[in-house]
Design goal:
Low-confidence stretches: none
Number of helices: 16
Distance between the termini: 55 Å
Helix content: 40-55%
Strand order of the largest sheet: 3-8-10-9
Shape: globular
Oligomer: single chain
Structural class: alpha+beta
Order of helices and strands: HHEEHEEHHHEEHEEHHHHEEHHHHH
Largest sheet: 4 strands, antiparallel
Radius of gyration: 25 Å
Number of strands: 10
Length: 423
């Protein structure tokens, strides 16, 4: 079995890394990852309107991941230094105790039909529920292919929503979208039933669109991080304290959850999925029953003193349709992951989110976030100042050693090095 434990991977050339990744995944040659071979202008023009170019984002591969007993290399698209390295290091620690265990619910998405100007909302709600089978059948007629593959409408839910204007009747179509993200399918269904639903309710249909609060489509990941590998009992205890603050304090929770999304968004983007939909679903899920924004993850200490991390959140991603089937780099990224279902993709993404979160909280609870992050950020600063490949290592070493990772200091250091070289 191929292993994701690729020691020294970061020290290899780009070409050597590609060879290893392709061999691990049994993938085709990864030349599509070259900027000139990936997404072209013609394809971009088909994907969005008014296209004028293509924006490149660094694509890395996180190593060391074991998910449900399978080793996997994880493509991550991000501009932020330290994200890929942090995820890889966290996955290495998780390997000691077997890696990540994941699970997920059925791929259920919901669409809403807003009905306004209803004279008797309570009675209208019951009338719509009485017509449940009729409305479900009408919705399913819009996507017979989805139904053929085992998906389709599972339920009709009707809610009454009080607003500052009036009480709205809101019908929810609960749809199993199989391996699709599902937005197009559920939106089409909502539009198809809107007029009939409004007629039954005695009102006028207005909005008919999916909700990105995908709280029926959850992915979960957990891992045991060996206490000794984490840094000892004191570090474990401090990580639990740090996580507890994120649970209790919305100000800490916002950045805590951002750390989770550093990993999640990078994989979602690499696989051509909708980053905004996933982010909206995640942050809405972070609002607890009491209406307070809180941490998405939890960290505890088990009976053996090890750190246990868990994460559960909505994960509306797909392998069918959208950019995943159009973008050549996204297609190859999915091939590298070796996933065949949207559920498997969602679970791996969630595992990466937990790994990223663990790495950030561990850094905060020990050396502070800046030491590792700024060491990697120093490369960007040095390059921006004009350092060549031959000068890069020396400039970075000075910036980190001087604890001054700034553009003005990089220019000063570069000038000094060149002056010394010219003597």
């Amino acid at each position: 079995m191929s292993t994701s434990r690729l020691a020294g991977f970061k020290d290899l050339s780009v070409a050597q890394r590609r060879e290893l990744v392709a061999a691990h995944a049994g993938a085709d040659a990864l030349s599509v990852f070259d900027p000139h071979s990936g997404l072209g202008l013609e394809q971009a023009d088909h994907m969005i309107e008014n296209a004028v170019g293509v924006l490149g984002v660094p694509l890395g591969v996180a190593t060391n991941f074991t998910v449900n007993g399978r080793d996997v290399l994880v493509p991550m698209a991000t501009e932020e230094p330290s994200v890929v390295a942090a995820a890889s290091n966290a996955a290495r620690i998780a390997r000691v105790r077997g890696g990540f265990t994941t699970s997920s619910t059925d791929p259920i998405m919901q669409a809403q039909v807003q009905i306004v100007d209803v004279a008797d909302p309570e009675a209208a709600r019951l009338r719509l529920l009485e017509a449940r089978q009729e409305l479900i059948a009408l919705a399913d007629q819009q996507d017979p292919r989805l139904v053929e593959f085992g998906g389709g409408v599972r339920d009709l839910v009707v809610r009454l929503v009080d607003s500052r204007v009036q009480r709205y009747v809101v019908a929810h179509l609960v749809v199993d979208v199989r391996d699709a993200m599902g937005a197009n399918a559920v939106n089409t269904m909502a539009e198809a039933i809107a007029e009939r639903a409004a007629q039954i309710a005695g009102g006028r249909p207005l909005l008919r669109i999916l909700t990105n609060k995908a709280d029926l489509r959850l992915a979960r990941a957990r891992a045991v991080f060996d206490a000794e590998s984490v840094g000892g009992a004191e570090v474990v205890a401090d990580i639990v304290h740090a996580a507890a603050l994120a649970e209790a304090d919305p100000y800490r929770a916002a950045t805590h959850n951002k750390g989770i999304m550093n990993g999640i968004t990078a994989v979602v983007l690499a696989t051509g999925n909708d980053t905004r939909a996933v982010e909206a679903g995640a942050h809405s899920h972070a609002i607890g029953p009491d209406g307070r924004y809180t941490a998405l993850s939890r960290f505890e200490q088990d009976v053996d003193g090890n750190l246990v991390g868990t994460l559960e959140l909505p994960m509306a991603v797909g392998l069918v349709g959208g950019a995943t089937k159009v973008h050549p780099v996204a297609q190859r990224a999915v091939q590298v992951l070796g996933v065949s279902t949207a559920a498997e993709l969602a679970e791996i993404i969630t595992a990466v989110g937990l790994a990223q979160n663990f790495a950030a909280v561990r850094a905060l609870a020990t050396e502070g976030i800046q030491r590792g992050h700024m060491s990697l950020h120093a490369r960007n600063v040095a390059v921006a100042a004009g350092a060549t490949d031959a000068e890069l290592a020396a400039v970075v070493a000075r910036l980190v050693g001087d604890k001054a990772v700034r553009a003005d200091h990089a220019e000063k250091v570069l000038g000094e090095l060149r002056a010394e070289a010219g003597r």
